[in-house]
């Protein structure tokens, strides 16, 4: 019969029963208490340690629950058979605060990523959040529809129909937490046994994600009309990923004839699809938005993907797919199991944001704001030394500068950096490594209206 | 030279330029305006239609942008070559509101899914939301760390270390929008060329997700200590998915010896892993919580997955992985590209909820509440006719009733339904189809304290 020797401390956070439980557990783990050995009865243990019997009982019950001891009816408590199979260590590492890498700052940063957050509608967002988090909205805290809330999918459909000419029923819309996730989900429906053709240069992040998902990705060259369809045919790809309204980063708008050709390509063979990434079509500063390719598709060949990252904020993490009929059927078979990745309260907030007109007003405000920045930048860069031409203007939130060949991209960038202005190389977006003339990318979304002239002055100095 | 015949309407939502643009576009699409045909100059068009020249200019610019016409310097505007390749249809379908299927209601529903939302801390949540959505928290609207916010990962690590004995550094924690998503992400790190062994009965949803992700899944029988390790060895599986603290749905706690055996199995061969799903360990009504298996792992073999779905609300959509070192390296290679699926504002709210003690208080409150329901239900079901035994009590939010074989599961359930009480069959969770004695599942999380006695009375009637 094992007698316990333990100094119980009254002044500790741990209950008496926990101290007893841990002491015995350690004895068993160390092997001081051996398999089959009998423990004191709870009555004797309580008397020996001068604790209540229920305290002793609690300690034994915990040891029973975790399988360190067993109770034999009419006999008492015994240490379980514990093979020396596996050395159980329990001392947990101390939790340390993780260091975040802080990006090195630059006074003027023409990053093509990011959006203008000075004009984010914080007040409206707070108001909607208060409304949505009311006690009587309890239903929102249950698990929702895997596709996303029906009411939000209706609001998105109405918007896409009206603003983008997308042919869509709410049942075709799948809401997910960001494009990366939706590409992942899409890969479940499509399978990964496909070759995906992308333009070069392209939206590199999407390319990397498809690679990571196990796709065979290839690049197809592009001209001023977009993806070269002849090369697409020769590539052996069965999926083409394009941004017809505003190619990233080149800013090319795919004209209607090229759209016909690429839709024709898709319709020629079963299983071919076009992924239309319509990431920033909201921002166009001359005329109407360019209609979606999906709206012209009569053969259920276009997978449309859109996001609120650019139009509201990257942290919103709400994107959506519009699936053609054959993939809707696949979704019902293999995709429906995956619960929606966006919280219902966030979905409800976005729905109200759209339905009450906040979204439209916000887009109009941002379009005007970005247009001002765009015009200011465009007027200024024309004067800069070394700039041979401008590409991709009139829409989106960046422009491209074709630079003189006298210096390389790296040199133009390095000179700008000396003056504390960060500009970006097009070559980062090129997946093939064809030699190109130096082209720089200047994003203006995150730049203040007052910063643009100051930054341009510095570029003038830098590039002279 | 093509002359335009169009009735411009002043009283419409569309601008004049849009009406002109759409008219010409339709003419081109119908083939009435043919390839190569010259259009009126903007000056003549403006005069003919009695609009300003800039209106005509805008219409042409839109047609140019979309590729319907081209401008030939010094000559004018011409219709582009449009092959009859692909029939462009543009009439978008009308957007219809989608009908949601509403689950048929039952007066008393012992669903094992769902949580008690009557006691959700709405006020605290609203307060934190107001704080997080302040204008000066602008940083939160930028894209965040792909793993999730460092501060939230620290808070989760501290919690797991203290409450679950998990050995964890914040850098090992990956935050994601729900378990389904994290299983998907994990499949990127592990690859899908594995056989996953699960118990039967098990958490069927996880099983389905692994199947959908392309895994070869097999089942291994379980006894009162959990997964049968001998069968696991024979199964050829290299990944074992277990719930050692509280197996779902059987409620088995894996004792320490079985834990040793399964850890031993994993350590015997490179590439073997144990996935520990610790979905509801917070709710245990006798003694301390059962420590995690991960805390006993000395060989970097356990992938720990946890969620706030049960402890806060299913709609929160925040789960987390704790990865062992080899998979952290894989994450850096193949997982880092995927942006975090939880919005930063939601992450910040949860972080504050944990750091300010709301989470602990909420858990204590819910534990006490669930314990009351548990005790009430347990006392009542013992008296019911047909109940041979009770399993899985003392923790979680459901119990199992072993029923007499005189009736099948379906019969016991059907009789309860007549009295408007819904109880659930264990067989739904069985992946293999071994014949079993009838076992019913009764969840009590969503049941009110007053409803339980009323429902029990009806079950008494139903099963007599």
Overview of the structural elements:
- The structure is a homodimer.
- With about 475 residues, chain A is of the alpha/beta class.
- The first copy, chain A, has helices at about 15-30, 40-50, 55-65, 120-130, 150-165, 180-190, 205-210, 230-235, 255-265, 325-335, 345-355, 360-380, 410-420, 450-464, and strands at about 70, 75-80, 110, 175, 195-200, 215-220, 220-225, 225, 240, 275, 300-305, 320, 385-390, 400-405, 420, 425, 440-445.
- In chain A, strands 4-12-11-10-9-5-6 form a seven-stranded mixed beta sheet, with helices on both faces. In chain A, strands 13-14-17-16 form a four-stranded antiparallel beta sheet, covered by helices on one side.
- In chain A, helix 4 (about 120-130) packs across helix 11.
- The model of chain A is unreliable at about 90-95 (pLDDT under 50).
- At the A-B interface, helix 1, helix 3, helix 4, helix 5 and helix 6 of A face helix 1, helix 3, helix 4, helix 5 and helix 6 of B.
Keywords:
homodimer; 464 residues; 37% helix; 4-stranded antiparallel beta sheet; alpha/beta; 14 helices; 7-stranded mixed beta sheet
What share of residues are in beta strands of chain A? 5-15%
- How far apart the termini of chain A lie comes to 92 Å
Specify the structural class of chain A: alpha/beta
Which protein chains are joined by the largest interface, and how many residues does each one contribute?
A-B, 114 and 113 residues
Number of helices of chain A: 14
User: Helix proportion of residues of chain A, in percent?
Assistant: 25-40%
Provide the gyration radius of chain A in Å.
Answer: 31 Å
- The mean pLDDT of chain A is 89
Q: What is the 3D form of chain A?
A: elongated
Q: Kindly state the number of beta strands of chain A.
A: 17
Oligomer: homodimer
- How are the strands of the largest sheet of chain A arranged? 4-12-11-10-9-5-6
Largest sheet of chain A: 7 strands, mixed
* Poorly predicted ranges of chain A: 90-94
């Amino acid at each position: 019969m094992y007698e316990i020797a333990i100094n119980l401390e009254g002044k500790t956070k741990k209950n008496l029963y926990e101290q007893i439980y841990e002491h015995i557990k350690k004895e068993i783990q160390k092997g001081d208490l051996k398999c089959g050995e009998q423990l004191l009865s709870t009555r004797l243990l309580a008397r020996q340690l001068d604790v209540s019997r229920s305290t002793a009982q609690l300690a034994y019950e915990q040891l029973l629950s975790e399988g360190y001891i067993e109770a034999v009816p009419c006999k008492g408590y015994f240490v379980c058979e514990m093979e020396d199979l596996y050395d159980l260590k329990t001392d947990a590492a101390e939790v340390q605060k993780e260091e975040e890498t802080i990006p090195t700052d630059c006074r003027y940063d023409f990053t093509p990523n990011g959006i203008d957050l000075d004009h984010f509608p914080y007040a409206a967002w707070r108001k909607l959040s208060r409304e949505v988090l009311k006690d009587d909205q309890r239903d929102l805290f249950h698990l929702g529809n895997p596709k996303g809330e029906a009411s939000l999918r209706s609001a998105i459909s109405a918007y896409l129909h009206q603003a983008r000419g997308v042919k869509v029923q709410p049942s075709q819309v799948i809401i997910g937490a960001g494009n990366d996730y939706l590409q992942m989900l899409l890969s479940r429906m499509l399978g990964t046994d496909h070759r995906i053709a992308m333009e070069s240069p392209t939206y590199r992040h999407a390319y990397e994600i498809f690679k990571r998902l196990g796709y065979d990705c290839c690049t197809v060259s592009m001209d001023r009309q977009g993806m070269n369809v002849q090369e697409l045919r020769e590539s052996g790809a069965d999926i083409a990923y394009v941004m017809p309204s505003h190619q990233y980063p080149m800013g090319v708008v795919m004209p209607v004839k090229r759209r016909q050709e690429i839709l024709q390509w898709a319709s020629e063979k079963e299983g071919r699809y076009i992924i239309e990434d319509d990431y920033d079509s909201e921002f166009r500063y001359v005329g109407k938005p360019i209609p979606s390719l999906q709206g012209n598709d009569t053969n259920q060949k276009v997978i449309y993907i859109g996001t609120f990252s650019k139009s509201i904020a990257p942290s919103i993490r709400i994107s959506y797919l519009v699936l053609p009929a054959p993939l809707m059927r696949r979704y019902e078979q293999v995709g429906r199991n995956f619960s929606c990745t966006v919280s219902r309260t966030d979905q409800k907030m976005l729905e109200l944001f759209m339905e009450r007109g906040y979204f439209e007003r916000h887009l109009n405000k941002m379009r005007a704001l970005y247009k001002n920045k765009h015009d200011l930048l465009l007027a200024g860069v024309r004067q800069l030394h070394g700039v041979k031409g401008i590409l991709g203007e009139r829409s989106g939130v960046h422009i491209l500068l074709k630079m003189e060949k006298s210096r390389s991209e790296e040199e133009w960038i390095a000179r700008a950096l000396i003056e504390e202005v960060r500009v970006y190389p097009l070559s980062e977006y090129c997946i093939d490594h064809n030699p190109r003339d130096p082209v720089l990318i200047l994003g203006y979304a995150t730049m203040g209206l007052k910063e643009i002239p100051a930054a341009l002055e510095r570029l003038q100095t830098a590039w002279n």
